[in-house]
Amino acid sequence: MSPPVAPPGWSRWLVPPAALSVHLSIGQAYAWSVFKPPLESALGLSGTQSALPFQLGIVMLGLSAAFGGTLVERHGPRWAMTVALICFSSGFLLSALGAAVEQYWLIVFGYGFVGGIGLGIGYISPVSTLMKWFPDRPGMATGIAIMGFGGGALIASPWSAQMLDSFGTDSSGIALAFLVHGLTYAVFMLMGVLLVRVPRPKKGADGAPAPLEGVQVSARSALRTPQFWLLWIVLCMNVTAGIGILEKAAPMITDFFADSSTPVSVTAAAGFVALLSAANMAGRLGWSSASDLIGRKNIYRVYLGVGALMYTLIALFGDASKPLFVLCALVVLSFYGGGFATIPAYLKDLFGTYQVGAIHGRLLTAWSTAGVLGPLIVNWIADRQEEAGHHGADLYGTSFLIMIGLLVVGFVANELVRPVAARHHEPAVQAPKEGTDVVRQQPESA
Amino acid sequence: MSSDSSQSPPDTPDRRPLIAFTWLWVGAPLAYGLYELVRKATQLFTG
After folding, report:
1. Nearest CA in chain B to A281
2. Which of A68, A83, A269, B43 qualifies as a FRET site for A413, CA 20 to 30 Å off?
């Protein structure tokens, strides 16, 4: 499939909705928990078993983004969005079949394995294209798309719950819900597939495509630079710190104020979790857009430096003031979202747009690592503290100190980021012609 | 890059209806999700 080049007069404001139609769909993954209790009762599963499709899906997201990034760069965004549509929707359809015949392995394979490939390819599919359309505001452009990934769960969570209420929570009701999800997401994502376009290549004086401007580094070369690994550390530390709160938000706020005159009810704790989701989403668009104005390095100084300060405030005074606790947690979560949304633009600044989608895909392994690290740290330490007879805010003190340390490590890594050395730069790279791959001009000596 | 892919020739179609439709396509479900979110988030102050 050739990259779809925009016809004359095509507006770049048609590209963010194309990206959003994919990200709002695949963001459903974070609403998987809605299906867990019905699956557990209908198929007699444990909590660990019912989490398997989601966990496999996230693993496949990381793997397919890391290994499929080069294919996405080669074949363009329409090909990638088509693959994402087919895999994500097929995952639901296979799950529908699995639920109908009560074969759970088919749900794990369908949603987790097949759907997970759709998650990874879909996540990186519009990133490079958006930055080519918005070279003046790459942070805002990728912020819109990646905000969509957060927004997907906000839509799916109440929608899926209402559907299960209507269809029933037995295996046939779950099967019907999966079927409707698969078909609806296919139609919704199709708009993105049909709409997405790459910008027309600039022409040089001789009429041939002009070389891409600025530094251009291939995905293969990027892996050999310290800049890639420093950003890997930056992303991993920032995400770990955010997940540290997100993972245990509801029990955390309850524990913090358990001994106060105004303890937090279960309902209020659920409201706190929802508020954190809003901060996460707002941070994706807001902070990422701000990075276009103040620079990528500076915005990560804020995420990591102010993030560490927020954790310090929670650790020192969090149990004394509910508004302070909530405010600090919201700021940390907005930085968590901002960190995700700003990283593609940071990569573009350092490595150019030549293979930035593939480089971004490889960097997302930092997310997978943080997804394991963050919950592990907070849960393990809280359990040990509980065993030692501690309660309330004391359960989390050590975790917060570790999070502050991780954020400082990320801050130092960000400070060490310098422009990529010239030996890693590609020789003049041309923008793609219609229906062709990116062309690399070899130097005469090559 | 300007807001369009190139200098628009005078006979190119008006893209504004398509832009409005596509933003509505993604905006409507997002607005639903945000409404549900706000409804739930207010429980922090009322629950």
Report:
1. B34
2. A68
Domain A219-424: CATH architecture, name and number where available: Up-down Bundle (1.20)
Residues of A in Cβ contact (< 8 Å) with B23: 13, 17
Q: Give the mutation candidate from A154, A160, A198, A280 for the B interface (greatest B CB count, under 10 A).
A: A154
Torsion of CA A54, A185, A359, A338, to 10 degrees: -80
CATH 1.20.1250.20 maps onto chain A at: 12-195, 219-424
Does any CB of chain B come closer than 8 Å to the CB of residue A262?
no
| Length of chain B counted residue by residue | 47
Which pLDDT score, from 0 to 100, does residue B9 have? 58
Nearest to A344, CA basis, from A332, A335, A353: A353
From the list B3, B33, B40, the residue facing A151 with the nearest CB is B33
- Paired strand residues for A188: none
Its pTM stands at 0.86
Is B8 near chain A, with CB under 8 Å?
yes
Which is it for the CA torsion A210, A213, A218, A219, positive or negative? Answer: negative
A283's CB contacts (< 8 A; 6+ apart) are A333, A334, A335, A336, A337, A338, A341
Q: Which CATH superfamily is domain A12-195 in?
A: MFS general substrate transporter like domains (1.20.1250.20)
> How many whole angstroms separate alpha carbon B13 and alpha carbon B15?
6
Q: Å from B25 to nearest chain A CA?
A: 8
What confidence tier does A210 reach under pLDDT thresholds 50, 70, 90? low
Q: Find the angle CA(A309)-CA(A137)-CA(A308) to the nearest 5 degrees.
A: 5
Task: Please state, in angstroms and as integers, the Cα–Cα distance from residue A220 to each residue in A5, A8, A22, A290, A430, following that order.
Answer: 26, 34, 27, 30, 18
The tokens for A205 are 């004086």
Task: Pick the range with the lowest mean pLDDT from A158-167, A265-274, A350-359, A418-427.
Answer: A265-274
List Cβ neighbours of A391 (8 Å cut-off, separation of 6 or more).
A255, A258
- Taking alpha carbons only, the member of A349, A347, A371 closest to residue A360 is A347
Across the interface, whether the CB atoms of A155 and B30 are under 8 A apart is answered yes
